[in-house]
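Tutorial, part two.
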Amino acid sequence: MNKTIIIVNNIDNVSQLNKIILQYPNSKIFSLNYFTHQKLFKNSIEHEIGDNYLTSIDKKIIDTQTIDTASNWYLNQNFKNFLMFDGINLASLIEMEMFDYFSKVYKTALSIIRIIENEKPTTIVDLADFSDLTQQICNMKKINYNNIHEIKHTSTYFDKINIKHNVGPFPLSITISKNNYKKIKNFVEKITNQFLKLNKNFDPEKKSILLLDFNSIQYDLLLKELSNSNKNIILLNQRRPAIWNLQSFNIIRKLGNNIINLNDFSKKIENKMNQSLQQKRNELEKMWNLNFVFEEMFMIENYSIWNSIKDHFTKICNSRFYDSIERLMSLNQVFTKYDISVILEWAETAPQEKEVIHVAKNLGIKSVLLQHALSPNGEIWDKAGKFFSFFSGSIISDKQVVWGETTKNHAIQNRHNPNNIESLGSPRHDKFFQAKKNSNKGMILLATTGISEFFAETSTTNDYLKFNNFVQEVCRVVKNLKDKKLVIKPHPQPDFVNNIIDLIKDIDPQIEIVLDTDLVELINSCEILITFKNSTIALESMILNKPTISLQTEKWAEESEITKKHGFVSISKIEDIEPTIHKILNDKSFETDILKNSKNFLDKYFTNQGNASANLTKFLENF
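Running the prediction step on this input gives:
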């Protein structure tokens, strides 16, 4: 009996798919990711979820292989000489992006393998992005193969930038390409710098503190303290402009911080830069032609995926490497011009921070990593710690400033040098500790965070659907509460922002969605805050004395210290959402116990509550 399956991934043309279905009326359709599933579901196309065939062992294999590939592929002796520039391996700068990339690649590839193994088809119609892999399997198993899909690979973590803002009551979230965003950012910075006459307060006789990609609104108190120090304060924001709205404009104007743009330095060495880029292009072209090495390296289940990913992978790498070369050469000019004594950063896994630290180390300049979020615990994060600025993995900065003894102990347990760790508190939370606490009634705030997309264990289609079900349940419960209003504050993660806006519109378009706002004011105006997986906003809610719920849609979240210490109410079963919300609203003693537990956790988690900015400033002045 003839058995046909259609494998679909990243489909745009639904009408084309419907025509194919008519050609193969008895076929079985498989989606390979959540977004494809949603598109098929909304268009009433019956299908099965492909990653349902992945076992728990498969997911662990994918995650382990992803970590190994992202960490080690560029260390191969055949490649190292091609990848070196200014004493650094260019591919080492994009480990985080490659971690995200290969997680999706291996998950898709193994899903295809498992679907074919289980379905044993006689014909495959391929509308996915892994035609070479699928064809290898078909040739080996003597399956009829029909590829009619124009390959369209999923964008990587840094390919697109999300711009979000509320226009009146309407949430506006626009995703644009990295290149277009860069053009807009450069234009905005040029205009604001000229208008404000920035850098007028720069004293060439003083040493400088260089801050990397700091959010001027989030860290306004730190910027104020630093501005009163005995050093120049320089902001180098390579991803997000230091000024992007009226509030950030007023902060920078008032404090007179110095802002630099690498473009101003690259123009001075344009000819030399072009020569370096051309030389690297020639070297990389030779490297990418070593197909036999790549074919053996990028394998899963004894199948090579190299020819399936070659065009996309090389395009990503070339683009990132050329960007890094331009930035590295420009950074050398920056450090020549400015007498920088110390660098403060919070996300050293991104290439921009790695590049700055690399140039600084060559010049003997120290760097300090500032804890930026509630660090997750659990085995899954410990294994992947090196790809994030958490303290379960290795750190390249010279010193680390953490929020308190809990994180310090966690870092020490993960083999960090105790002498390099300073427990100084959280500058971004000074304003929360200093704020007057309000006991407003009536508004329940749902602060959503996305699923952990980096891991196969946590990013299957069913993981997305589970998350959606939890959101829908919260919306249903609050809607049925008398005199209560639900407000949604999405996490800023780009793809997820657009997804949550669409989801809320489907549930109830009348629900208010707040994107870019003053968090102190927003949280202070709520009665209960609900979030997911121990997001840092849970801490901010606890500081402002709000009963806080964390919805644990992923198992690792139940292993975290804040969950074990009952810093908030932890819910892992969807059926517990409604009774818990009702109990907080109606049982005063229960609410009191929650707030008491929250305070106990905060007292152990944060040192220098409310004056961390001043303590960090003193530390940097004497560094």
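The longest helix spans residues 306-337. In part three we will examine how such features are distributed along the chain.
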